[in-house]
Structure formats: C-alpha cells, structure tokens
Amino acid sequence: MSVAVSAYDGLLRGFADVVVYVTDVNDNPPTFSQSEFSISVTENEPDGVIMTLAAHDDDFGHNAVVTFALIG
Q: Per-residue DSSP letters for 29-56?
C-alpha cells in the first residue's frame, strides 16, 4: 500500500510517498482438535497434569501465540 503525505507550514511545503508493507494480520482464529472437551476431577485428585489441550493458529509471529485460561 502506498500513501502520499504532505505538510505545509504557510511558507514551505513538503511531500513524501510512504510505502507500507503488511506482513501479518491477526485474521485467523485458533483451532482445536475438537469443538468441545470434557473432564471430571475427583475431590482428592493429586497435584499434576489432568488434561492437555493443544490449539493451532495459522497466523505468524506474536499473532500465532495461543493462551489458555480456565474460567469457572
């Protein structure tokens, strides 16, 4: 994308063409291997991993970072 920029202070005028390259946009949502997950945990469950989830995001760089949160 090219953008023309101009500035004028009443006496002098300046122009510049600015070229903008967009390398990535956060336009892809993360996807999981299935649409819903379910797990039961007993009251006295020992500490440790009880379930592992993975998601994939087709974006690049920091837009491809997926963060999980347990809410409820």
A: --EESSS-------TTPPSS------EE
Place of tokens 């101009």: 6
Q: pLDDT tens digits for 11-54?
A: 888 988 888 777 778 888 889 888 888 888 888 888 888 888 88
Q: What is the pTM of this model?
A: 0.48
Please list the residues that pair with 15 across neighbouring strands: 6
> Which residues in 2-35 are b (16+ Cβ under 10 Å) and which e?
eeeeeeeeeeeeeeeeeeeeeeeeeeeeeeeeee
Sign of dihedral through CA atoms 52, 57, 60, 63? Answer: negative
Please state, in angstroms and rounded to a whole number, the distance separating the CA atoms of residues 72 and 52.
18
